[in-house]
Design goal:
2 helices; 5-stranded mixed sheet; 2,3-Dihydroxybiphenyl 1,2-Dioxygenase, domain 1; globular; 5 strands; alpha+beta
Amino acid sequence: MINYRVADLEWLVEKLKEEGVKVLDDIERFDYGKFVHILDHDGNKIELLEPGDEVFDEGVKGRTK
């Protein structure tokens, strides 16, 4: 599965739905970020992540912004 980091997950999910993208689940919210899963046109599952930067930064060493 591919994971993409996004800036505004709720906005993006609405735009993807308007374009006919299949959204597999509701947005899940955690202290460290929000997640949702979609399918691309080939049926590959993609995870979209809007991290809660402060909590996410504590758990991930050496990441780039």
